[in-house]
Amino acid sequence: MAGGDSRAGDVAALADSLAARIAALDSVVVAFSGGVDSSVVAALAYKALGGHALAITAISPAVATGELDGAKRVAAHIGIAHETIATDELAREGYRANGRDRCYFCKTELYDRLAQVAAEKGFAALLSGANQDDQGDWRPGLRAAAEHGVVHPLQDTEKRTVRELARHFGLPSAEKPATPCLASRIPYGTHVDPRTLHQIDEAERAVKALGFPVLRVRHHGILGRLEVAEEDLQRALQDEDEIVARIKAAGYDHAVIDREPFRSGRLNAARARPAASR
């Protein structure tokens, strides 16, 4: 019990320290998806600056259905002012081409729009939820952030500690799985278009309705390949006929369940190895 109290005290002290750093920025716009990382940054920003902090959620065809509703709930829990903007990453050829740097074009669109809002409303800085764990993965979006002077309050904080901070603030997103943009389900080099994004969204929603909270439907043309969390894989295989039918109903001619469990960053890890050896 004493150990638990000590850890809680450490987390509270960290929250105070991070909030103090944000307070020095005077006023901030938070790039707010409603995921655990951006939710913690929003909570810290509101703790530090109150009405001088604004959370903004971007809406586009690449955002999974239900994500905006979740972001609204978290913002309301925090008390932070919350607005939405429409982003048009699909208008950028680099995004549609879906090379390994796709996220650079997505984040450039996002930060261009957020910077515009910040300038119009008189906010001094842009904040993101990038954490320490993000430094070890292929994250071209961080280059776009650097070009826009985005501040990452959690850049020295491990993901597990970010979740502890989320619990400290009682955030509804504290245990929320990562939900990257729908384009991340499309293999590099396959063009991104609104129809494909919608198809992926429909397939994932249909499978999630069966009680599988952590999953990806990887898009391979006429084939939809489902990955689920390791703890749910056996149950998914038992329900394979129903799952396959639901994925096909979203517009795929064929559907399979991957026998390997879902692992975040699997594609990036495979593609980044040659570069890492240089």
Account of the 3D structure:
The protein is an alpha/beta fold. 47% of the residues lie in helices and 13% in strands. It contains eleven helices and seven strands. It has helices spanning 2-23, 36-49, 67-78, 93-97, 102-121, 141-147, 159-168, 194-208, 233-238, 240-249, 266-276, and strands at residues 28-31, 53-59, 81-86, 125-127, 215-220, 223-228, 254-257. Strands 3-2-1-4 form a four-stranded parallel β-sheet, sandwiched between helices. It has a three-stranded mixed β-sheet with strand order 5-6-7. Strand 2 (53-59), helix 3 (67-78) and strand 3 form a beta-alpha-beta unit. It starts with a helix and ends with a helix. Mean pLDDT is 93; it is low at 272-278.
